[in-house]
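As a next step, the fold was encoded as tokens, giving this record:
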Amino acid sequence: MEVLRRGVRLLVRGVEAALAARARPRGGWWDRPADAPREIRNPVETSSMPSRRDRLPPGQILTERWPVLHYGPVPPFDPKTWDFEVFGLCESPFRLSYEAFEALPRVSITADMHCVTTWSRYDMRWEGVHVREIVVRARPRPEARFVIVHCEHGYTTNLPLDEFAGEDCLFADAESGRPLSPEHGFPLRLVVPGLYAWKSAKWVRKVEFAAADRPGFWEVRGYHNRADPWKEERYSE
């Protein structure tokens, strides 16, 4: 009987491990402890250029300008009081001062930007902290499948964790060798080149790991939840 019980316990543990592995989003690199050797080096050069002949998604118009679009006023910034918080379904929630955030390893990523209002701009050279640097430190739990990005003025946007932690995604504070202007998101904006630019939220203050998806500011106002420019996912049906 004891042998049977032991066999049942081993079977249950095996099933639980398999279910946990299936529940965890793709990209096991974030299972590493926060003090493990980083995949991110300083500097790192990557590119999100699509492997398509035509880099311009359907319905987009190429521009060399960088239009300024956002909801609400540009928020004030005080480096003495500004902080960056990571919380929710993660093993190691944390909060960083502006000075501590700026001391994190930095990357440089060249990527195209596509706005839902139909403009696109090629070869934007972003500088900042790779999203994976944050994810590795936070160590999301297996049930964390989504990320809610919280910004100034209560603005939020939502992404699947695997989209958020993409190879070409970062928290940027500079572009083309110059600090971002406040109108373009300084001191910190998220950059997710593979999605329409409203997902690249400006003035980021918090990152929340969540089990369930929660549509953000524009998503509840009729914008598409996913925002893939190659599928023209501009608005909800």
